User: Fold this.
Amino acid sequence: MTQTDLLAAFTGPVPARSERPEIMRHSQGSHDVLLSPADPGGLTLAERAWIAQRVASLSGHPGLAAHYQAMLDQHGPIDASSPREAAIAGHVTRVTTAPGSATRAHIQALRDIGLSERDIVALTQIVAFVSYQVRAAAGLALLAKDPAA
Assistant:
């Protein structure tokens, strides 16, 4: 479900965007690499979409949450009650809502469910990226309302 510029779908036209097209290009590129990599490793495409949907929901952005839910629907269901998914969900919630509370023990819990270092980094990058998207969309929406801001 790649779009040329996902943030444009949520913000509409923002004149200031044309001054920095590389930011939008890199943002969309990050989306594509993190959510639809050619080699997803041990973090499935469904899990990646689910993680992104969870971050967008926790961050209060229904548009992004719906986008990632649609991606999840394409990749298949997640059994959120499984020990693996429960551990991932706990980490996503923790890092999204209280990032300073994550400890080495929390990272070890991810290893214990079979995530490799690469998978843990990808999981954390998805959380960070979707958090960035939420903030960028909010800022761009404000600029769309008041281009002089």
